[in-house]
Every structure is written in structure tokens, then in C-alpha cells.
Input
Amino acid sequence: GINAEYGGAVCFDIGSHTVRAGFAGEDAPKANIPTHMLTGDENTKYHIGTNALSYPREKAEVVMPLKDGMIENWEQCEAMLDYIYSKCLSVDSAEHPVMMSEVAWNKPSIRHKTCEMMFEKYNVPAFYLCKNAVLAAFASGRSTALVLDTGATQTTAIPVHDGYVLQHGIVKSPLAGNFLAAQMRDHLKEEKIEVVPTYKVASKEQVKEAEPAKWTPKKNLPAVSSSYHNYMVDCVIEDLMQHVLQVHDRPATDEDLNMIPGNNFEFPNGFNYMFGAERFKIPEPLFDPIGTNLRILGGDMLAMQHVVSSSISMCDVDVRPSLWSNIILAGGTTLMSGFSERLTTECTAKTTSSMKVKVVTGGNTSDRIFSAWVGASILASLGNFQEHWISKQEYEEEGKLVIDRKCA
Output
């Protein structure tokens, strides 16, 4: 088989927020780095990785290779892969087969170009491209499931049956992580809280809750681009959301929420603030976009349970029960405390009493963030998967269109 002839496979899962990479057969990726990168100069075209991003550079812009989950900028994509091969994995790409995830709606032209890039530029001995929802299902030991992926840019429900995506059942909603971050920014503005990103702070003093911050700005900072400043502010907001946001187990009144203890958060400049009812109000539109008067995002702003039920109802009647009882969560936003419980409640309310609704939550949180990667790691190391690889020889005989035949 392919794996016997070469080193173990390398698996890549390129998301809109982070890129995960590592070796097949391992439990977790070796590399988990931001998809965003900084533009550089003639010597270093792009600065990649968390440390590189935290270092402010004159006029450097924050960019990223994906749009709508698909590779758009190939130069940036190659810079990312170069960085991962040399700095994170320390292996020669020519010695390891590659399995890569893709979004279920990837365009044929992008699939062809990805195949070409891996064989021509990286000289891989074998390649395979697999839908990330299928991989998430495999990671939880299932070949049939409804994958609800709530990531940074969007929420998608993707029905998987016997290891294949049912394309006609894919449903998307813009209610996801970036939307929550925008809601959080609005709230901070209303409370007149200015977010000072970490790169500006030289030192800070302890202050009492809600008192003005006492901090010293860094001297001689370069003139950074607005894209850099905004990205660094976003990083603080993301940290804040992970610390304080929570989904209530049902639509809650203000009285309910005011009874729940607040949650204190300290900003990079030492300012700290107690977040109360807004901890629940900000994520509430995920499940009740109508009841919470939203700034209209455009697109169908479907609640999580509507994304799920719309997707399942587009699938064959015989498949529906196994989708309702195998709802798999993927994507960072689903890790919010209370998310899976509320989804179960809302989905149960949308089905007949005889229909069993089960939201499958991974054993641990890393499984959920890394689910597509873990699925790739499992699949690429299976003995009976070996004939599915596109070998270098097949690529040389058939060209990049071989991917249409080998990778459904």
C-alpha cells in the first residue's frame, strides 16, 4: 500500500480561523495556527503563526488565503504550507502522502488546482481530498450523521449518508462566531469600553472592577495598518467571548438572567468588568434571531435548530431518523457552555415525539475543534483506505481531473 512505501500521511485541515496539520494516526494535530498572516517584504513575503502575528510591523496588512472556506489566494496558501512543512512538521513533502479537508461546496476549479499544487509544487507521492463534514462524522465513528458546523464565518448543516455528503441538503446561516463578535463589539461600545489590544500595553496596574485602567503604553510603536489593529482587537474579543458567553437552556426573561451571577473579565490594559445578563443575550440570536432584534446580516438568518431541521427535511424520508439521532457538532462556536443542551431542546421541539433527537458531543473539547483533522488522521491510516489515494502515477497519467474520479 501507499503508506508502506512512504512515510506516514500528513493531514491538513484548513479552516477560516485556524489551520491544523499533523501526522495520520496521531490523536491531535502537531500544528494549530491562525489562518491569518501578515504581509512582509522581499525577504519574508508573509509572517505566519501566533508569535509572528503578535509582533507589530510597519504597515504590514493582515490577510488570509480563504474566502467562503475555499482557497482563493494560492500564494498565501503555499506560504502557509511551506511554513507548516518546514517549521511545524520538519518533513520533506515528497516523502509523505497528503490528506486534505475541503468544504462541501468547494468549486471544481479549486479542487483541480489544489491537486495540481500538491503534486507539482510539493511533489507528494499521493493525495486525497475529503469533505470536512465526512471527516467530522468519521471522527465520531459514524458514516451517517448531520454535521452542524458553527465556525467563524458561518454555520452549516451538512447531511452525510454512508460516508457521502448529500449536497442537496446543505443549509447555511451567517449566524456564527464572527456575528457574535460583532454583537460583542456593539455591547462594548454601548458600555463605552475601549478595547486596548495587547501589542500596545507595556505594563498595567491592578485596579478595582470598572475603575479606569492604569497602564503604560509601549513606546516607539511602528505605524501599524488598521487591518492589524483590528485583528489584534478581535483576538481580545475572542478571548473575552470564550471566557464569558453562555447559552441559556431556554429563551430567558431579563429577571431570569439577572439572577445568574456575573463573570469578571480583565482586559489587556488591566481594566476589568463584570459581565451580567449580556453573557446570555449576545448568543441568544443563534437560537432566536426573530425575538432578538438583530441588525440584518443579509442572507437567511436561520437559527441553529432551523438550519438543522431544514437540512434534514431536504433529505430522503428513510434517512431522516438516523440524521436526527446523530447530530454532530463541529466548529469553535459550538463549544460555548450550554450550546448542545439548548440545541437538543430546540430540535426536540421541532420533531414528532416518536423521533429520537440526539446531539453527539465529542469526548473532549479538542475533538470538536479538531474533528475534521481527527477524521482525516483516522481515515488516512486505515489499511483498507489505501486504494483510494490518488497516486503520483495516476496524476501523471490523467492530470488534475483525476480528482473528479477518485475524490467524490
Observations:
- The radius of gyration is 22 Å.
